[in-house]
Structure formats: structure tokens, C-alpha cells
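Contributing new records

If you add data, match the layout below exactly. Sequence lines come first and carry their own label; structure lines follow with theirs. Keep one chain per record. Anything else will be rejected by the validation script.
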Amino acid sequence: MSELPDPHVPLSQTELPVPPEPFSLGACLREARLARGLSIEEVTLAIKFGARQIEAIERDDFGKLPGSTFVRGIVRSYAKLLQIDAEPLLAILGKHKPSIDDGVHAPEDTGAHLPLPGERRSVVPMLALLLALAAIAVAVATHFNWPGGSRGADEPKPAPAVVPAPLARPAVPVAPQPAPAVPGVAAAPAPDSRQLIFVFKDKSWVEVKDATQKTIFSQNNLAGTRQVVSGTPPFDLVIGNASAVQLQYGDQTIDLRPYTKVEVARLTLK
């Protein structure tokens, strides 16, 4: 028969029973993160949760997090990032339910007071504040005669505004303007003017200068159109896409090929 220890003699440290160390969800996540060489900042950027929330998870400090649904979401996202199975971690999380509060928490260090479950918030201070604000609004509206405010009995009404009649302006003679030119229709030619007739088989840009080196015609022209240009020769012409343009000068058809280089014809007609 073994001898019982004397209850008055304390046991040494080595003789005390050592309970098995519980498995830590946060330690598991932290070790997996360190094994992958990730920092807290890199984790927050990857799974879009705050650094304080990640640190609370790794410390198993679930009481500082909003609720069990939120915590489970972090654990799933964190485990997926670290490529480890989330189910064993969620099973461990179920053992921490008493420390996870699904209630509403005030932000840290705000000093806000939230009602306890079953506690009713008094509405008297709120009603008093609303009545005070309404009284101030009525006083301001009355003072400044805003819509809804009363006007004093002896206050004169403003006289209607008198709008002066517009002053008559003296008539200014206007010089007659020449009629606008119509594309493709020649204006009345001057006694010494000549005509250039362009027929376009394809798009082409044409510029024409007269004897004074004034540009009398310059524009892009569409396929199937015709332009008649009148002026005083000699004419300086620049014709783009010249192979698609037919030019008639007076009674003569002008061959543009001798004047064309890289599809642009440059010539002078006297």
C-alpha cells in the first residue's frame, strides 16, 4: 500500500500536474502566416480586413470583434489566403462562443453608453430637444419674415417695383450684304474672270489662289460632287488625290498627271 503524501508539505513544481496546452486558433493562423513570410499589412491588403482585426484574431481576442458571423468570415478569408483548411479552425471557434458577443458595441474610447438588453431608452430628453429647436425655428422665421412667419401690423408693404421702358436706340443704317455663295454655283463673274470646273470621283482636297495670291477656294470635296470656281487668272492650284479629279479650264480639259507627285497635283493656269 502506497504512502499518501503529507497534506501539510507543499508539492514541488515538478510534482504538479501540467494540463495539456489548448490548441489556439490565432496561433495556428499566425504560424501559417509567418511560414509564408507575410506581414499583417500584406494580409490586410489581401483580404480587406483591418490590421487590428487580424491582430485580435491571432491573439484569440474575439471579444473585441463585432460578432461570431463577422469572426467566422475573417477566419474563412484568412485560411483561404494561407491555403489551409478552415473547417478545423471554425470548429475551434465554436468553443469560444461564450466570449464572442453578437450584440452591438460602441467604438473604443468613445465613452458612449449603449442600453443593456431589456433596458428602455428615455425619450424625454429627445422630446425636449425637438421642442426647443422648433421654438427657435419659429422665432427666427417671425423675425426675418420667412415663409410662415407673421408680418408686423404697422410694417409698410414694399411698393411694387417700377421697370423702366427700354430706351429707343437711334436707327443705324446697315450696308447691304452680298448674298452668300452656294457650293457648286458660280457667282456672277467679273469681266476678266475665268472659271475652273472640278468633278470629283473620290474625296479630294482642293486649294485655289487667284492673281492676287488670295485663296478663293479651299475645302474637302466628297465623291460625286462638282465645284465651279471663278476668279482672275493666273490660278495657283493644289489638288489632293489628283487621279480622282477631273479639271476643266474654260473649254479645255486639263490633264493633271504631268503635275502630280505622290497623288498631289501642283500647277499654275494662266
